[in-house]
């Protein structure tokens, strides 16, 4: 239970105490979410969010004055940091390892509103998933769920199960847990195959053009972002946008109904997860190695 002392609240997490200053500061003013409320929401999300961040390099975006204030990216762990914050070195960067409830709520107290994690796992050269980033060129893209359905239908035709998740912003990422074996280079080739095939089949909807100025209104299939050393928004991470949206896995029915990123937010995500659980966690690891062999065959 929190205890109040002056303009601060002390939270007790087992043996760990966290002093939260300015607990009433509005972080998402449009929906009334304060700093203390944000930390409490993170604690509710922890059982679902932490499996997607544990064992990965973390990059945060911090907003010390809330979503309408100045923001900055942070890769290096701040100094000083509490003793319960674990780190991992990569090159000259000492990344935070977001692997515990205390680490998560401490990051919340540091105004880390977005949690971006590495595609690769710390110390493991082989990926445990494949992801495709479906990135609209328009700020408002009514076709984004149509595009998502088309991607999922192609994967279905290959005998592969995947889960779409909102980015919490404008796009969607398709997430496929995979059996261990394929390399990042092989997954990039698979992503290239999927993206170029769909661009050929739907030239008025999709593009693989990297430069946004050259895409017009086409939806970019970004198969390049999923690679060792790169990051994507974590499942269940909040986004620093009005309405406090949260990156949320979707059911096929929700995709068909045209779900919007703003449908899922810090105010309702915990109830949803208690009802539905983690759709990504429920998806079996897919035998992508078999499909890679099929599409690389000279007889295809």
Task: Give the topology.
Blueprint lengths: L2 E3 L2 E6 L2 E6 L4 E3 L4 E2 H19 L2 E7 L9 E3 L11 E5 L2 E5 L3 H9 L2 E10 L7 E7 L8 H14 L5 E4 L5 E6 L6 H18 L4 E2 L11 E4 L8 E3 L18 H5 L12 H8 L11 H9 L4
Parallel strand pairs: 14-15
Antiparallel strand pairs: 1-2, 2-3, 4-5, 6-7, 6-10, 8-9, 10-16, 11-13, 11-15, 12-13
Structural write-up:
This protein has helices at residues 35-53, 101-109, 144-157, 184-201, 252-256, 269-276, 288-296; strands at 3-5, 8-13, 16-21, 26-28, 33-34, 56-62, 72-74, 86-90, 93-97, 112-121, 129-135, 163-166, 172-177, 206-207, 219-222, 231-233. Strands 12-13-11-15-14 form a 5-stranded mixed sheet, covered by helices on one side. Strands 7-6-10-16 form a 4-stranded antiparallel sheet. It has a 3-stranded antiparallel sheet with strand order 1-2-3, covered by helices on one side. The chain is globular and about 60 Å long. It has 7 helices and 16 strands. It has 300 residues and is an alpha+beta fold. The mean pLDDT is 95. 27% of the residues lie in helices and 25% in strands. The chain folds into 2 domains: 3-121, DNA primase, PRIM domain; 129-296, DNA primase, PRIM domain (Alpha-Beta Complex).
Average pLDDT works out at 95
Which overall shape is indicated by the principal axes computed on the Cα atoms? globular
What's the helical proportion of residues?
25-40%
Largest sheet: 5 strands, mixed
Oligomeric status: single chain
Low-confidence stretches: none
Provide the β-strand percentage band.
Answer: 25-35%
CATH topology of the largest domain: DNA primase, PRIM domain
Order of helices and strands: EEEEEHEEEEHEEHEEHEEEHHH
- Looking at this structure, what is the CATH superfamily of the largest domain? DNA primase, PRIM domain
Number of helices: 7
Strand order of the largest sheet: 12-13-11-15-14
Corresponding CATH architecture of the largest domain: Alpha-Beta Complex
Total DSSP E strands: 16
Distance between the termini: 62 Å
Under CATH at level 1, the class of the largest domain stands as: Alpha Beta
> How many structural units, i.e. domains?
2
**Could you say which structural class the secondary elements and strand pairing correspond to?**
alpha+beta
- Radius of gyration of CA atoms, rounded to a whole number: 20 Å
